[in-house]
Amino acid sequence: MFNLEEELKKLPAQPGVYIMHDKRDQIIYVGKAISLKNRVRQYFQSSRNKTAKIEQMVSRIAWFEYIITDSELEALVLECNLIKEHRPRYNTMLKDDKTYPYIKVTVAEDFPRVMMSRTVKKDKSKYFGPYTSAGAVEDTLDLIHKLYKIRTCSRNLPKDIGKERPCLNYHIHQCGAPCQGYVTKEEYAVAVAQVQEFLNGHYDGILKLLTDRMQEASDRMDFEKAIEYRELLASVKKVAQKQKITNGNDTDDRDVIAMARDDTDAVVQVFFIREGKLIGRDHFHVNVAVEEDRQQILTSFIKQFYSGTPFIPREIWVQEELEESPVLCRWLEMKRGRKVRIAAPQRGQKERLVELAEKNALLVLSQDKEKIKREELRTIGAMNQIGEWIGLGNIRRVEAYDISNTSGMESVGSMIVFEDGRPKRSDYRKFRIQSVKGPNDYASMREVLTRRFRHGLQETKELEELGEDQSLGSFTRFPDLLMMDGGRGQVNIALEVLKELGLEIPVCGMVKDDHHRTRGLYYQNVEVPIDRHSEGFRLITRIQDEAHRFAIEYHRSLRGKDQVHSVLDDIPGIGPARRKALMRAFKSLEAVKEASVEELAQIPEMNRKAAESVYRFFR
After folding, report:
1. Higher model confidence: residue 97 or residue 218?
2. One domain, residues 508 and 528
3. How many structural domains does the chain have?
4. How many Å apart are CA 560 and CA 409, to the nearest integer?
5. What's the longest Cα–Cα distance across the chain?
6. pLDDT digit string (tens) for 90-146?
7. Which helix (H) or strand (E) element contains residue 128?
8. Three-state SS at 331
């Protein structure tokens, strides 16, 4: 039994990470502290300075644990990893999970390639980016191949020179065919150097070259070539316009970060500056779970954003000085391998750039506010509405089940999961019914639920014995509510299974009318009416449809696998090659059945013994 007063006395005055759990053993908050003793005690001390959200979080804490670290830096790294893994409800969380494309030049190869990459590795290649649009990267790569004739193949050059014919790119003039020796290593290296100049934003040389070539082609009345150069010229200008010069003498890489917020949400805007040029910008919606000030939100954003992005710039500009700036810099330097500086510009062009990022964040927040509200009504709001109808609060995770047994085939079951009103497809599960023969939905549902929760209890026990986090198991997270696709019968089956296994989980049925439309919820022996024009009703419909779709798709895939099986596979001595040869020669199974031994033996892939085996099988 967890004794709060006793556990608070045991807290060490050392750096570390603390983890708050609710009564369902879910992690609801993760934080770090220089002194665990001082920080954790603050949550449980009576104080007028606590916000309503912090009070709410503290009221849900059933127990806590902590992990001691050797330094504040180690605590920060551990905190980032735990928040990323568990996404606790009361931590400030990024709503967006974005990855950015980069342009990769494989300069370590004798004949380098230029390609898109979603990761930055220490592989001696040069990376340009990040870019905020994969489409823009593809357009740029397409232009580079047209301008500089860089290869796209994965051939091992110069080892494979001359071994194969040149590919289509050579014939459409988008590759110089180094694979054939048509381009020397030195000539190719010049082209790669020009590509890197282009990616660094130096366009003057290529613009002048294309202009001169267009004019020359026009002078000799080669208008098709002139049009081609004109289109390339326009493409280069289009790419060039997307990169604004921020400082002509600046060659540093930096991110400019600023935010705007209201009571519950924040938007963080990031400008990506590479080699002194603004190559892109992006915004991120942040769910401010526990009331935090601007400095704390920016700190949380930096931790989450840079724990997931492969590129760390030399400088990060923010709106105001951050209290955790020294430890954040050490953490970022550890990831980057070089010095990183976090600064809050106070004057001049630097301050104006941060202000511009803030204005953009404010604009996005105001424009997207209504959209965000609609999405929340559709998801979390709808989940809360369902909870209100049946008198349950704090419903986050819902599981729904369906049975499919069409076409006389064996039955299958589906388990789908919705968290905070959204489908969580990584937790979906399929069940092939083992103990029930024929269409018996009740018996099949009993088997599915028994297997699901017995497996969950077993996984939980094994993880506890190993001393590992229970969330590592795929079945260990139990739902806040079970929703059965049916009325009293399905609900009673679920309640019986849960009782047998010693579990207490609320169960409700989705009751349908004569037209197979949901008319209410069956909960605790009462049919609860629902508003058919509400978001809660629409969410119930989505849950039903998703459970049904998932079961049907699984059933269809099994039917497809069975139909692929041929009766010819059951004949001794007939493998895939002979089966294909038989169908190729006789066109139909009926013709194979009627064939004589002599006719069967005439097929090149068959011998006399195999022909006799086929003949006997059908007699």
Report:
1. 218
2. yes
3. 5
4. 11
5. 98
6. 887 776 656 678 888 898 888 999 888 877 777 888 887 777 667 777 877 887 888
7. strand 126-128
8. helix
